[in-house]
Amino acid sequence: MEKLALLIRLEVKPRKENEVADFIKGALPLAQGEEQTINWYALKLGPSTFGIFDTFETEDGRKAHLGGQI
Question: What is the pLDDT of residues 6-43, one digit of tens each?
Fold first, then answer.
């Protein structure tokens, strides 16, 4: 059961929107490969605003994700 989550909001500089979108798309396989990351969602909230929402069962899982490849 998920007990912890991260919600990250990214406000992107002008003309960097596509670069960030590509980075986020490329991060999905990395997140899926993390054993302790239960869910990983990427969102486009507006023209230059993105979000990432992750869930974890333990603090160790959260820390592993934060120290991971993404």
Answer: 999 999 999 999 999 999 999 999 999 999 999 999 99
Kindly list the distances between the CA atom of residue 63 and the CA atoms of 1, 5, 8, 17, in Å, as whole numbers in the listed order.
17, 11, 15, 28
Whole-prediction pTM value?
0.88
Residue 23's alpha-carbon distances to 18, 52, 54, 59, 61, in angstroms, are: 9, 12, 16, 25, 22
Residue with tokens 């023209």: 47
54: domain CATH number is 3.30.70.100
Report the number of distinct structural domains present in the chain: 1
Question: 56-65, pLDDT tens digit by residue?
Answer: 999 999 999 9
Contact 18, 54 (CB under 8 A): no
